[in-house]
């Protein structure tokens, strides 16, 4: 290839075979494996800021994005990641109204498998859908969000953002606030941040906390001000009204008053606090615009950039595993 961006050989040296055949859960990784992925992603951050971005680490490989749920950030970042690594990328977005969660999903898997893809990136509204698909196909499967279960690549990019902002993850106090009940992002981040040595707090109303959360190994707060007090990081979660059955909050206005992140509540956190949000944001509900858009404290745009680099690291290491099989 010509006009290769500086640092490519370093990226090649850091690339290693992914430790599991599939990436379905943060639990698929050990701490040293997360560190290695983060180191690899750092190289891709630098490369993504160069003029020449396209590499050949996945040349000849086919990546299929199979998104049964609408997505902007996750799907586009996996697409960019695959294309920048040289893969052939196909996006498929079946209409959610045509899906029955059992047989149709399996039929889809069988059909796709016949096309001989190398990696399948799956988002589905049913918890366990990615795991089910991984049992029906011969290719590798990446879970891009399954119901209320997990979103492992989001946790990886969040850890990358934190490590770049603070120089470390271990010892940080991270308050994950809002609709924990419906959040796959919260679940994956609890596992990963705890694994990496952070102190994790979950903050939200009792109606939006999962059953058994007291066994997650985290601190639980039902008062926003107490939950963010002294925190190094405040990670806000979207209020997922579309997943709610019944009135779990009195109103969005009341929710914002009690659990929305504004300047007053943020002032209770550590002086060097950083704010995160996986997106999309409900401005004026779980977070105020002047906080979300303040680049002195907000890592939200940084998370978007890190999403491409982190997913490049996952795809490159999964391709390396394919090369070694």
Write the layout of secondary structure elements.
Layout: H1 8-14, H2 31-48, E1 62-67, H3 73-84, E2 88-92, H4 103-114, E3 119-124, H5 129-134, E4 140-146, H6 152-166, E5 173-177, H7 184-195, E6 199-203, E7 219-221, H8 224-228, E8 233-236, H9 252-259, H10 263-266, E9 274-276, H11 289-292, H12 300-324
Parallel strand pairs: 1-2, 1-3, 3-4, 5-6, 5-8, 6-7, 8-9
Helix pairs in contact: 1-2, 2-6, 2-12, 3-12, 6-7, 6-12
In short:
With 325 residues, this protein is α/β, with parallel strands linked by helices. It has helices spanning 8-14, 31-48, 73-84, 103-114, 129-134, 152-166, 184-195, 224-228, 252-259, 263-266, 289-292, 300-324; strands spanning 62-67, 88-92, 119-124, 140-146, 173-177, 199-203, 219-221, 233-236, 274-276. Residues 1-6 have low confidence and may be disordered.
Q: What can you tell me about this protein's structure?
A:
By secondary structure, this protein is an alpha/beta fold. The chain has twelve helices and nine strands. The protein has helices at residues 8-14, 31-48, 73-84, 103-114, 129-134, 152-166, 184-195, 224-228, 252-259, 263-266, 289-292, 300-324; strands at 62-67, 88-92, 119-124, 140-146, 173-177, 199-203, 219-221, 233-236, 274-276. A five-stranded parallel sheet has the order 7-6-5-8-9. The two termini are 25 Å apart.
